[in-house]
Every structure is written in structure tokens, then in C-alpha cells.
Specification:
The protein is an alpha+beta fold. Helix content is about 35%, strand content about 20%.
Length: about 325
């Protein structure tokens, strides 16, 4: 979901940008006029899919190998979408849907692409039918393809669609982590502690949620960073009472929908004034869990709007201090 690569040396506009890894040959060689790409895809009974990646991104590699390397996922994608690849540090000129021309890296900034991979699925009119921020493992990615290919966004949000397609298995429970309080979420009360708030949105029958607890939250560095937050635990399908930031009383499920939480796990960070500071929506490994916590806890997000640049500097500092840097650990 998150990478470590910094910006490459600037290239010439129009020169193909390097990608995270070799992308499938069936990706489209586009002139990068997104308006034309949407029209051409629609003419062929398909939708446009834009992939944002970068060099050195292990999550991009997982998308290409584990997801698009799966024959059925590749076949579904080729049948329903016209995929094009952009580099978040690239210099090729892109014409956006409003007619503005800009480099790939400028478009990534305009769209606030914080993670690689990020995928945008467009409807026939040029609206984003679904945005996937970060890496989603194959089974969940299949749902994203089904949702976007069949125009499900006209019927319901992705979270409700996923809930209907992935019911909780009998006996499955959300992991109860000692780091997180058992009481019902109350955002105003949490903010009163004077620290940033981290709200973890989970559901039962979520393998990625279990992994987050068992591999990331047990690490000493992560536990130390978690101690700098007031923590909230939310079941995206739960009915427990919640007090939202404006004092409104609602339920866990409805609060998740109100915050546009698209799936689990999702981590939403709130600044001390109650505004949303940052969020994580995809699959994430412990190294990046620590980096995200540091980004928010240190208030770096206020002065550095690009998480990717923060991540690069943090990794460089770790290397200079003789600490190991492993993106998939």
C-alpha cells in the first residue's frame, strides 16, 4: 500500500516513466488524454481504470504479481476495463477530465495520491465509480472489480456491497487488543485527552485485521507510538452507540458510513481539534504502520502533505542511524 521510493530525477515530458515493476502487457498504451480514454473505453463497453504506482513499491509488486498474475483476475480486468499506468513521480503530460494538462506527478498531487498502488475506476461520464487507496489482496480486489464493472456504485456504497458479499463466519470475532479500550467510541471524550485520536475500523472475518493485531501492534516500536494516541475501536458492522465529533449519537456502522469508511481495516486519525488528519485504507505491513503512526504523532502531516516524501526521509534517517529498513517487515 505504501512505498518508500523517493522522487526520481526529472525526465522529459512525453518520455515513458519507469514503473514500480513491469506492468502487464495488456495495459493500454495511452496518449494520456483521460477524456479520450474514458470515451474510448465506453465505446468498447468497458470502463477506464487508472493505476498509480512508483519504483521500489512492494505493494505495487503484490498487485501485479498476486492480483494481476491471477488468471481469473486478469481476465476479468481485461474484459471490463481499459487499464493505464501512471507513475506518481512521472513527467509525462496527462490531460485530466477537466481539460487541464499536467505532469503525472502533478496529477498525483492534485488527486492527493498518498499511497501506491492507488486505482481509480471511472464510469462512462468520467466520474470516479470507485477509488482504491492502497493494496487490496486478491479476494477483496475481486469484489472491487465486480463492483466497478457492474456499476454497483449506482446502487450502494462499496462498504455495503462488501458487507453483503462477505458475511461474517460463524464463530469469527474481532480481535480484542489490550491496546484498545473496550468502551464504546466517544470522539469528543477522546479528544478531551489532548492527544491525537486513532480510530481503528474493523469487522469480523477480516484476515487483514487479524494480521494487523498479531504482526504490527505487538511490536515495541508500534506500541510506543500507539501510546501517543487516544485509541478507539470500531466494528464497521456493529450497533454499539457512538458519539461522533459533533456530539451526534449514532452507531458504529453508521459512523463508519458517515466517515466514508470503505472497508476493513481502516485507520482514521483525528487531529486535536477533531478534524481528520490522515487515514489508511488498504493492506499495510508493520514497517509502514510505524511510519504512519510517526507521521501523525509527530505532526509531520501538517508541514509535509506528501506521506511518501516523509516516508523517504524517515527511512534515510533510519539507515544513517544504522537501523534496518525492510519494507515488507
Amino acid at each position: 500500500m505504501l512505498s518508500l521510493a523517493g522522487a526520481p530525477a526529472a525526465g522529459q515530458t512525453g518520455v515513458p516513466s519507469p514503473h514500480a515493476i513491469e506492468i502487464p502487457r495488456w495495459f493500454s498504451e495511452s496518449f494520456l488524454d483521460i477524456r479520450d480514454d474514458i470515451r474510448d473505453a465506453s465505446r468498447d463497453g468497458k470502463r477506464l481504470m487508472i493505476y498509480f504506482g512508483q519504483d521500489g513499491c512492494p505493494y505495487c509488486k503484490a498487485l501485479m504479481k498476486a492480483n494481476f498474475g491471477d488468471a481469473s483476475i486478469a481476465a476479468t480486468t481485461r474484459k471490463h476495463f481499459v487499464p493505464i499506468a501512471l507513475n506518481i513521480w512521472g513527467d509525462r503530460e496527462v490531460t485530466w477530465i477537466d481539460g487541464r494538462k499536467m505532469a503525472e506527478k502533478e496529477l498525483a498531487a492534485v488527486l492527493r495520491v498518498q499511497y501506491t498502488p492507488t486505482l481509480l475506476f471511472f464510469d462512462e461520464q468520467g466520474a470516479v465509480a470507485l477509488r482504491v487507496n492502497g493494496y487490496w489482496p486478491p479476494e477483496r480486489f475481486r469484489l472491487a472489480l465486480d463492483y466497478a464493472a457492474r456499476g454497483r456504485e449506482r446502487e450502494q456504497g462499496f462498504a455495503d456491497f462488501e458487507a453483503g458479499r462477505v458475511p461474517a463466519k460463524a464463530g469469527d470475532r474481532i480481535v480484542r487488543d489490550a491496546n484498545f479500550p473496550a468502551r464504546a467510541p466517544d470522539l469528543p471524550r477522546a479528544l478531551a485527552a489532548g492527544r491525537p485520536v486513532m480510530a481503528l475500523f474493523e469487522r469480523a472475518s477480516c484476515a487483514e485485521c487479524v494480521e494487523l493485531h498479531r504482526e504490527a501492534f505487538v511490536r515495541a516500536e508500534v506500541r510506543e507510538l500507539l501510546a501517543r494516541f487516544t485509541l478507539l475501536h470500531v466494528d464497521t458492522r456493529g450497533s454499539a452507540p457512538v458519539v461522533a465529533g459533533d456530539g451526534a449519537r449514532t452507531t458504529e456502522r453508521d459512523w463508519a458510513r458517515r466517515l466514508n469508511v470503505v472497508g476493513a481495516p481502516t485507520i482514521v486519525f483525528f487531529a486535536r481539534d477533531g478534524s481528520e488528519a490522515f487515514r489508511v485504507e488498504g493492506y499495510i505491513r508493520p514497517f509502514h504502520v510505524a511510519a504512519v503512526l510517526d507521521y501523525v504523532a509527530s505532526d509531520a502531516w501538517r508541514s509535509e502533505p506528501s506521506f511518501q516524501r516523509f516516508l523517504q526521509r524517515r527511512a534515510d534517517a533510519m539507515r544513517a542511524a544504522g537501523k534496518p529498513v525492510d519494507l515488507w517487515k
